[in-house]
Amino acid sequence: MESVFSTHDLIITIALSFIALAISGATALAIFWPLSKVHLRDKHPGWRENHLHGANEFLWFFRGGFKGIGDRDLNAFARPVQLALWTIAFGLMGGWVLWLLSEYVFV
Q: Core-most of 29, 62, 78, 96, by most CB within 10 Å?
């Protein structure tokens, strides 16, 4: 008996799950990003203005630059930001790769 769902449908479903993972990362980012920025503003005022500008902030959190400051409280706020950014990247890339597979390989 043939299945009701094709391989294409299965791959699209998994791709949407990756997108859901990216959305959960964005939610975590929306919660912890402001906490980290406020902590940097309050505890390290001169450092933030001299080192972080625009997209540099995302890259700094993404690669774990906050560990160089040596503030344990900042690590507690910034580690979830780093994890959220990695989750967003992994979710979007996974969804994109599976979408490409569904469109061009499993047609």
A: 78
